[in-house]
Amino acid sequence: MTIDPPPDSGAHVPADDVRVSRGKKWPQAITWPRAITLLIILAFVGLFPIWQWSSSQPKPTPCMFPGIPAQATGTLPALPATYKAVKLVLISGQTTTLEFNRALATKTLTIQYGISGASTVTIPYSGPNQFPRLQVVDPLGFIRDDQVPLPDDRVSVASWVQNGRVLLKLCVQRSGPGFADPGTYQGTISIVDQRVGRVDVPIVVTLSYPNWRWIMALLVLAVLAGAWYVWVLQAKKAAEIAIGWGFLDFYATMLGVLSAGAGVVFAFGVYTATYLNSLTWGSSSGEVFALFGAMFSAFLAGAATVHIGAKAGQAESNPVS
Fold this sequence. Notes:
The protein is an alpha+beta fold. About 35% of the residues lie in helices and about 20% in strands. It has two domains: about 10-50 and about 210-315, no CATH class; about 90-205, Immunoglobulin-like (Sandwich).
């Protein structure tokens, strides 16, 4: 049985290609499984750009050093000619790396020094309301291996005497995504106060690409590309168009859902291991393409496990006699 098309169409439409719902005729191309699958894909694609545009990042606070003691006015009194500078000893077990990861924030690194012979030796004029602060500099700043520096106006250093120890502090204000490119920045902070022996401390500052939502959008693109590739291999029809309803039909099936689910889990694992767990991801443009390729390959690997399992199940249910 056929339904006559309009007189000018010159063709007949099979009755099976028309569905009737509440008195209206809908083309079979619009089915509930296809509609639901399409809505899920659109939501998957649009979620992260919308999330990115609607989100806001609080502005980091300027560098401050809570607890820094008050300094007397004037200049430090002259020391006797026979004075010997006090030796500072680095207290073991401390880190000299300031890790930001993806955070857009203000962070401070604290390094503590002991005073050699502290039971009998003190730093002159370091008492309250005297001159407890020590002169400290970072003469060369913090530079990446390609000679790109951290902005000097966002880096602060300070040192002072407190409770029989010397504190050395580095503060960095990462004010926004354009603050500095991701990577590893190395520099040296020096205590050059005449009352103590010179101390040079190599310090490393690490930055990773801060906008994880855009990298998540890259994950979405890798998943969509992998899903399309899996469908093309599944169709195995030379006449099948590259983009069509068959894509939605496949991912509305149980095999398609399991393939997509396993692929997303594998791809997300690469996203976590490569980007989220990296201290300096984004230091080179090639990392973007490498991550996309790795997530795409991981999706295919995850989907393949489902297809291999499905074929093994079919072979067991249909043994060859």
